[in-house]
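Q: For a teaching session next week I want to show students how multiple molecules come together into a single three-dimensional assembly. I've collected the sequence lines for a complex. Could you give me the predicted structure tokens for the whole thing so I can convert them for display?
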Amino acid sequence: MARVAIGIDLGGTKILGGIVDSEGRILAERRRPTPAQEGPEAVLMAVRAVVDELLAVTKKAPDGDPLEVIGLGLGIPGPVDAERGISRFSPNLPGFSNTPILPAFADLGLPLAMQNDVRCHAWGERCFGAGRSIDDLLLVTIGTGIGSGIILGGKLYTGGSGMAGEIGHIQLVTDGPLCGCGNRGCLEAIASGPAIGRRAQAAGLGASARALFDRAHAGDPEAGALLEEIAADLGRGLATAVNILNPGRLLLGGGVVAVGELLLGPVRRHYEAALMPVVRGYCPLLPAHLVEEAGVVGAAALHLATATVRS
Amino acid sequence: MARVAIGIDLGGTKILGGIVDSEGRILAERRRPTPAQEGPEAVLMAVRAVVDELLAVTKKAPDGDPLEVIGLGLGIPGPVDAERGISRFSPNLPGFSNTPILPAFADLGLPLAMQNDVRCHAWGERCFGAGRSIDDLLLVTIGTGIGSGIILGGKLYTGGSGMAGEIGHIQLVTDGPLCGCGNRGCLEAIASGPAIGRRAQAAGLGASARALFDRAHAGDPEAGALLEEIAADLGRGLATAVNILNPGRLLLGGGVVAVGELLLGPVRRHYEAALMPVVRGYCPLLPAHLVEEAGVVGAAALHLATATVRS
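A: Of course. Below is the structure for the complete assembly, covering every listed component.
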């Protein structure tokens, strides 16, 4: 009987669920929109519907080999209390505030686990992606926000109060733009997708990060110069975390990174330059391996991997 | 029979050694100058002499209760390969370059351990000092340089290649002063003892950190303003590390910190302000408890503590 886990990636706009096998392959997938505006109860009912659909699939045993579901893992945006199964708050899910998540699934009789979605992604990379066999690993996602998942000594490191990895909120400059967190000059306020869009707009180089990247790709020297500035900010922020954590690999994921080497090339150059010289070359910066499926695979991997997750 | 460990703090100018009991108390102490200019062999012979003197003391059993020596721990400046017992290099010990340390003590038949001196200090605070019962702990020392020791999940975290905790070399500003590491704008180049002295001198406010602190203490408004600037730099650097690591306590040690609340007060204010607002108040900034004896106690604690040190 093949052992699988069900992984759920609960996002602000959609719920993605999958049956994931012990090699990290998705055997079946279900999705539905997140009824975010209808509040936590409606959101959890929608998640439950996805879970029930996937469980029904596991019982069908298409090729006669039934699937043994060893657990259900949930990836949730924002800070979580993984031990108590609570979403502390979530910028993209109105009404989530110390909301119990796991009780809605207790009747299934399955081992349950939950974790912040970016940490799920990091854990998925460690188990099945670009971080395999790397004991000390940092995954940074650059999209609407900037977040990170930290693997230390082969385990997910979540911090003293579950808030580790807030690399998006290191203050890169003292008089920088206002950040959603309330501070000024945070890396997220300078180099997230929306922040890049604002910088492009202020420079008259397009209305979005995408537009800026397109211009730079087409050879516009002003767009290239702004891209270089942004890469310098990102490189310095990433090197800061690596100087402190000394991981063996740095993975970049998230929507902004999808643009590829046009951005990653200059970021990598500035990152290496901002590292303490004696550690240069030790921690390569690579694109994450998991993309859209990262949350599902990572949430399932909370059960599939042999290494224990520290919660 | 009381169980003790011998701890050695090998510094650039002196070797301190002590017999440390299971409560972290120093029962006897020996010291001698470090013959740093005579090279690694002479330095290790001097360390060995201190160890031999202390071992002789343990055999005397002053009150009839003999001491059982359970191990020898060495704290070494600069990066070490703790597992292989090697000093990789040390700015203050000329000639130390992938120098084997532990073989010089193998004939003693004692369990041996070594670690970087600041990490020893952090471990000592965790076992016997201001970090007792704190599982996630950051100790930062501000003196000639700026270093740190990181305890995560109750264990010393040393990084993928033993270089974790280089908070002194995070690039705080892009066009800052040249640092000893080769980069510009590192926290150490801006706010270590010598860097503070250079800033004082450049502002005509004295020739050393001490002189600046004295003027500020006496109420000189210009000295007070510069102190405030320095505190802002330190606060931002410390908050950066805490935003990433989410420890439960931040301890400050080292020569610069000895000035006390005159500096710690403003540093604490800027540190809290630079933290991500939702984590403010969780990780208090406190002075380290261990001072001159920190290295000796911490090195001995590599053997005395029950928690395993990840090397």
